[in-house]
Design brief:
Layout (H helix, E strand, L loop, with lengths): L4 H12 L5 H14 L7 H15 L3 E5 L5 H7 L7 E6 L2 H14 L5 E5 L2 H4 L3 H5 L4 E6 L6 H10 L3 E9 L2 H5 L1 H9 L3 E9 L6 E9 L2
Parallel strand pairs: 1-2, 1-4, 2-3, 4-5
Antiparallel strand pairs: 5-7, 6-7
Bound molecules: ligand 542 and magnesium ion (MG).
Length: about 210
């Protein structure tokens, strides 16, 4: 049977990256996507912006919405302090299976909790099920129409505190206009646009960083 693109991406990681070396996993995926097959990872250019936001924040608890193949999961987790935790939600079982193996290859299983399920189902369970008190960082990279409803759900579930950071990918391409309007107009957020390019292309895209003001 034909392999899928995520399966071929995993193959590139297992062939070219060193087990236990997260940066080599990130590099192997970027090479694969730049020279073999494009895939919707945040990529190396926006990835550097992601790295700087994570490093500056030094978060103890991170939530990622939309694991896909685990590229940004590995990228974020490789920068977390020793006891920090990253919970990543992915509702496509085939993608979750690939991401799980990418995360294992990077040797980051201890920092990452991959949950197979939807944001709508699991955001309300964060506190009781994972013992999460507050989220220091949320990286949004799932369906773009769900950025806004899920942000409201995070607020309603009391998961954001003064200083919590929402970092959203693709606010230009494919775009999430309703989300952008909301965080830029709301007095409860201080929002900032980091201009960049759509992964592995010259098209404009960017990340929006929004600090919750409480
Ligand atoms: C709604 N709740 C959800 N809960 C859990 N997982 C969810 C999810 N929604 C989606 N997912 C998962 O996240 C991932 C979805 C990502 C959606 N991303 C995009 O569409 C996207 C698309 C592009 C893109 C840009 C230009 C273009 F021409 C074609 C594609 C670039 C990106 O960086 C993207 O992130 C999948 O793995 C999906 O199964
Ligand atoms: Mg994206």
């Amino acid at each position: 049977t034909q392999s899928t693109r995520p399966q071929r991406l995993l193959g590139a990681v297992q062939k070219n990256a060193t087990r236990g070396d997260p940066r080599s996993v990130v590099k192997a995926i970027d090479e694969f996507c730049r020279h073999k097959e494009w895939a919707m990872n945040v990529g190396d250019e926006k990835g550097c912006i992601l790295d700087s936001v994570v490093s500056e924040l030094n978060p103890a608890t991170v939530l990622e919405l939309g694991t896909y193949c685990g590229y940004s999961t590995v990228r974020i987790a490789s920068l977390l302090p020793p006891h920090a935790k990253l919970i990543t939600l992915e509702f496509n079982p085939d993608y979750a299976k690939i991401a799980c193996q990418v995360i294992a290859w990077a040797g980051l299983e201890d920092k990452i909790q991959l949950v197979e399920g939807s944001s709508a189902e699991w955001i309300p369970k964060m506190k009781e099920h994972f013992g999460v008190k507050m989220l220091d960082l949320v990286f949004m990279d799932h369906w773009k129409d769900d950025y806004l409803p899920d942000t409201k759900l995070l607020e309603d579930c009391g998961l954001l505190r003064k200083g919590s950071v929402l970092l959203a990918d693709n606010v230009i391409c494919p775009g999430s206009p309703d989300y952008l309007k909301y965080v830029r107009r709301s007095p409860r957020y201080k929002s900032q646009y980091f201009r960049s390019h759509l992964e592995y292309t010259k098209a404009e895209d960017g990340l929006e960083k929004s600090v919750f003001l409480g």
